[in-house]
Write a structure and sequence with these properties.
By secondary structure, this protein is mainly alpha-helical. The chain has helices at 13-18, 29-42, 45-55, 64-67, 75-87, 106-125; strands at 61-63, 91-96, 99-104. A 3-stranded antiparallel sheet has the order 1-3-2.
Length: 126
């Protein structure tokens, strides 16, 4: 598993000063493009289920050999969906021998949650 540490923007005073929250400023073009890529990856039911299966797994990771039987899809199709989730920054993986193990990147999920929570708060106050 990767030892790389992910930083979630907006979690400390310094990042709040350089990156205003969604309530105080509209999304910039780059931020909107980045978030749209993530939401697009989640817009497919198979990918949403894959993310859910990976995130809910005890131990935080799952072998692709355990994911494939949960779907009536071919292995290459499952691999394609996993690749799109990886490209969106939602999951990461590591090859161990023949099998590939996947885990969720919590920083990306935290970012999405912060975006959605902020949107709900802004809507409630309007």
């Amino acid at each position: 598993m990767s030892k790389q540490e992910w930083v979630v923007l907006g979690q400390d005073d310094q990042s709040a000063a350089c990156c205003p929250g969604l309530v105080s400023a509209p999304l910039g073009e780059d931020q909107a493009t980045e978030l749209a890529k993530i939401f697009k990856a989640l817009g497919d039911p198979v990918r949403l289920r894959l993310l859910s299966l990976i995130a809910s797994r005890a131990g935080g990771e799952v072998c692709v050999c355990d994911l494939t039987p949960a779907f009536e899809l071919s292995q290459p199709t499952i691999s394609h969906h996993l690749k799109l989730l990886r490209q969106a920054g939602l999951i990461d993986c590591e090859r161990r021998g023949t099998w590939v193990h996947y885990w969720v990147l919590p920083g990306t999920l935290d970012r999405l949650a912060a975006f959605l929570t902020t949107a709900q708060k802004a809507e409630a106050t309007a």
